[in-house]
Amino acid sequence: MKIRNPRTGIYDFEIPDLSADFVRNRCHTLRAGQKEWHKIGIHNRIGILQEWKAVVLKHKDELIEALATDTGRIWETKLEADIVAASIDRWCTIAKDFFSPSIRKKSSIPFIQLQQELEPFSVIGVISPWNFPLLLSLIDTIPALLAGCSVIVKPSEVTPRFISVLQQTIDKVPDLAKVLSYIPGDGKVGEALVNNCDLICFTGSSATGKKVYDAASKRMIPVFLELGGKDPAIVLASADLELAANSILWGSTANAGQSCLSIERVYVQDTVFDNFVALISLKAKELLLNADNINHGEVGPIIFEKQATIINEHLADAIEQGAEIVTGSTQCEKINGGFYCRPTVVTKVTHHMKLMQEETFGPIIPIMPFHTTEEAISLANGTVYGLSGAVFAGTVEEAMKVGSQIEAGAISINDAALTAIMHEGEKNAFKLSGIGGTRMGPSAIKRFMRQKVFIIKEQPIVSPWTVARYRE
Ligand code: NAD
Q: Taken in order 380, 414, 410, 421, is the CA torsion positive or negative?
């Protein structure tokens, strides 16, 4: 399978076409390795992950180079690598407390005691997307490994260059290589994971998420789905407009808008609407494309060619229905073979436009005025998605009152897209943005374990409910 370079448009990389048998065999090997991995206990697992972190850091430059070729951007690539290194430490600290020895406790029946244990699932399948290839392939993998599971990871076929670099670091830690494996492949390989693993963590579009959910239900295996978003930001008249403009600009344009948690809709109170639009447009104009030099300019290419078509469609649909481009692009531009989209501020939008309903995944900032906060909340809730959102107001209380009525699992207050940086808070995806327990915060680790209880009779007492007792 030939892979396109997002900066040149040239198909300059290949991945093998792995069979379903290959995946089955790999899962079989990982299943065998998991038993010992579980047995060695949390302190040894932490030690092995720390050993791996040191190897990854030693090869950080090669990893960044491969990832930067996969994605065409450098700043976010470095951020991804840093977040991953920090997250290994964070999860190791959380796991230390999480696995305290289980204590036998009294039950409501005097001669029965209870002992709770946690038993990990054997093989976890992680299927991840192309927008943050390293980060999103590891976000569930690290807690799953610490929980005592084996993990097989299939990143997106759009960005596979980093896989062999990362796998080489895994191979340098033999105890880890028995329980962690990265494999390249497309949706077919993803399907094989669903058919061979014991639990699936899927990050990707809502459309593919539904297919994964369907396939997993046939095997009755648990599945955690982290899907698309159309995150709103609400700016109240009392807000610090300078702060709101800076934050929303970052939230909409980081990674060229290719984030599930990008701000894709902005609602601004009518009395400050013109000021806000002027402010953010001025700032948006200052952001440069990195088309000529990856180290110069804030906005990288649209990584996946098909995504550029979707962005173009949404812009064309909006313009046709009367939307106005205040600054930016009317279409993605083809430069040196790559597709680029300038940070684009759009006004005169209405809520039935694709730009306000469907995931655009580009650095587009459509802005709509509102009069009352009720109206803003209703607009914010007016899509099928419910991933996250943001509210800007003069006081935290005012912002939280509005935020509490937004149907989404994470609300940034007086900032935007904070879940990109802050992984400690626990959250669920609402509506079509996903299903399953929180992937962030301490309780995320519990998703990879089943609860088991030992119900213990310590003395030779005949239980009053047995037949023998009944006949006495
Ligand atoms: P996608 O759904 O096209 O692909 C995601 C992964 O699924 C890829 O690895 C792909 O090969 C695999 N796949 C495709 N068909 C499959 C099948 N039938 N069975 C199993 N696996 C299959 O998504 P994408 O275009 O790679 O990523 C962008 C999407 O991901 C956006 O919608 C974005 O919002 C979402 N996303 C969500 C989060 C989140 O945390 N909620 C984070 C990042 C991205």
A: positive
CATH of the domain at 19: 3.40.605.10
DSSP state string for 243-267: HHHHHHHHHHHGGGG-STT-EEEEE
Same-domain check for residues 219 and 238: no
Tokens encoding 104: 């036998």
**Neighbour tally for 282: CB within 10 Å:** 13
Q: Is the CB of 436 under 6 A from ligand 1?
A: no
Answer yes or no: do 384 and 440 share one domain: no
**Cα four-point dihedral sign 175, 176, 182, 188:** positive
Cα angle: 344, vertex 307, 282; to 5 degrees: 10
pTM for this model (two decimals): 0.97
CB of 303 sitting under 6 A from ligand 1: no
Q: Is 127 in the pocket of ligand 1 (CB under 6 A)?
A: yes
Return the best residue to mutate from 208, 214, 423 for the ligand 1 pocket (most ligand atoms within 8 A of CB): 208
Cβ of residue 23 lying under 6 Å from some atom of ligand 1: no
Count of other CB atoms within 10 angstroms of residue 256: 34
> What's the CATH code of the domain at 335?
3.40.309.10
The whole domain housing 23 covers: 2-227+433-455
pLDDT in tens, 89-143: 999 999 988 888 889 999 999 999 999 999 999 999 999 999 999 999 999 999 9
309-366 pLDDT, tens digit per residue, is 999 999 999 999 999 999 999 999 999 999 999 999 999 999 999 999 999 999 999 9
- Based on the residue annotation, tell me whether 226 is a catalytic residue of this protein: yes
CA of 209 to the centre of ligand 1 (A): 7
**Any catalytic annotation for residue 260?**
yes
